[in-house]
Design a protein that fits this description.
The chain is of the alpha/beta class and about 270 residues long. It has two domains: about 5-150 and about 250-265, Rossmann fold (3-Layer(aba) Sandwich), CATH 3.40.50; about 160-240, no CATH class. Helix content is about 40%, strand content about 10%. The chain contains eight helices and seven strands; from the N terminus they run αβαβαβαβαααβββα. The strands form two sheets. A four-stranded parallel sheet has the order 2-1-3-4, with helices on both faces. The protein has a three-stranded antiparallel sheet with strand order 5-6-7, with no helix packed on it. Strand 3 (about 110-115), helix 4 and strand 4 (about 140-145) form a beta-alpha-beta unit. Helix 7 (about 170-180) packs across helix 8 (about 240-265). The longest helix is centred in the C-terminal third of the chain and has 25 residues, at about 240-265. The radius of gyration is 19 Å and the shape is globular. The two termini are about 30 Å apart. The relative contact order is 0.17. The structure holds zinc ion (ZN). Zinc ion binds near residues 34 and 45.
């Protein structure tokens, strides 16, 4: 899957300088190390971010000149700190690291950068770094979030998307079965529900039912306070074919995003 010709990390400094002169779009994978239930690896977000960046490069090959930067494997996952293996940077650290990476790319001569960021906790710090770089360095930073895009693009694939969607469940579980099947242990897969011992009715990470309202209220639990196994959603409907559809739809969107970014930044 890794196309060495697209890897920035494999270039020498003189080759990086030559590559920057071509004004390519640099794809920067950003992940997280956090739990996704007993059946999925803690580096899931990272390996999928890196895979997605190379997949985008492959899908746009011949149309857009891209380079894939070495992945940032660590992200910001404060809500999962109650689960082992949660190797999380603080929001301030992640924002500073992303800013430093962008600034270093600009110093190396690159002007066009798209972040392939695959963790919800990252979005705040990463967005903060990106808008600061627009202000301070003049670069326009793009951003795609494959897991989040999957929620939006896969709804009609399921009878009841709301019932199967979730952390460690759909659509990420099917995607993992299609991309990294050897890293999924379906014998340990169990569906998850949310439950509070202190009276709340949790609806998702930080959402609680409030009276008869259809709009939820916000409560900042640790996820381990409302989930024993770390999973939400239904793991029983996952399969490779659904994962292949996730790849087609989500990577199709990401490739089209990069084409759009390339067109609109051609003179940057
Ligand atoms: Zn995750």
């Amino acid at each position: 899957m890794i196309d060495n010709s697209k890897s920035l990390g494999r270039l020498s400094w003189t080759e990086v300088a030559e590559a920057a002169d071509r004004n390519p779009v640099v794809l920067v994978p950003i992940g997280a190390i956090e739990q996704h239930g007993p059946h999925l690896p803690v580096h899931e977000d990272s390996i999928v971010a890196e895979w997605a960046a190379y997949k985008i490069a492959e899908l746009t090959d011949g149309e857009v000149d891209t380079l894939v930067a070495p992945a940032l494997h660590y992200g910001h996952s404060p809500t999962f700190r109650g689960f082992a293996g949660n190797l999380s940077l603080s929001a301030e650290t992640l924002k500073a690291v992303v800013r430093d990476i962008i600034e270093s790319l600009v110093q190396s001569g690159f002007k066009r950068i798209v972040l392939v960021d695959n963790n919800g906790g990252n979005v705040g710090p990463v967005s903060g770094a990106a808008v600061d770089c627009r202000r301070d360095l003049g670069v326009l930073i793009g951003h795609v979030y494959p897991w989040q895009l999957g929620y939006g693009l896969m709804r009609d694939v399921y009878d009841d998307a709301a019932a199967v969607y979730g952390h460690g469940a759909e659509p990420e579980l099917s995607a993992m079965l299609a991309i990294f099947p050897e890293q999924v242990d379906m014998s340990k897969a169990e569906s998850g529900g949310l439950n509070s011992e202190s009276g709340w009715t949790p609806l998702s990470y930080a959402d609680a039912k409030i009276g008869d309202y259809t709009v939820p209220g916000t409560v900042y639990w640790d996820f381990s306070e409302v989930s024993k196994n770390g999973v939400t959603g239904d793991v029983s409907v996952a399969d490779k074919a659904t994962g292949a559809e996730w790849i087609r739809r989500v990577m199709g969107f990401c490739a089209e995003y990069v084409r759009e970014y390339d067109r609109n930044t051609a003179t940057n």
